[in-house]
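Entry 12.
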Amino acid sequence: MTGDALKAEVRDNSQWSGVLLHYLQFLLVNVSQVAGCNCFHSLESHFCAWLLTLQDRVKADVLEITHDVFAKMLGVRRVGITQAARKLQAAGLIRYRWGKLAILDRQGLKARACVCYQQHTRAYQRLIDPSWPYD
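Predicted 3D structure (tokens):
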């Protein structure tokens, strides 16, 4: 869709306008939350929050994703993700091998996740989907 077509659709359809405004507001809240999280929370707790968020979005216990992709998503070195994943695997919360990460203990991850997961969930529920997460 071209920019002009989007502008016309938003102008002619107030429902689209509301959807886009909610999405933009959520995006801004999320970017701010991630920036703060990167500064003040441990990589392990931030990683737990991302695992929970991804599980919520894909509605699956097995995530097909590499440590390299996680590192890029979180803006850290891959070795940091590997170290955090080892700790979580040793605690029995996850199991991983190259390209696949299985979440074994969601409640355990929630206990280790930073508060950002709860704040992200509340913002998503308020602005995008009131029934999310689906567990």
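Annotation: The chain has one domain: 3-127. The CA atoms of residues 11 and 135 lie 37 Å apart.
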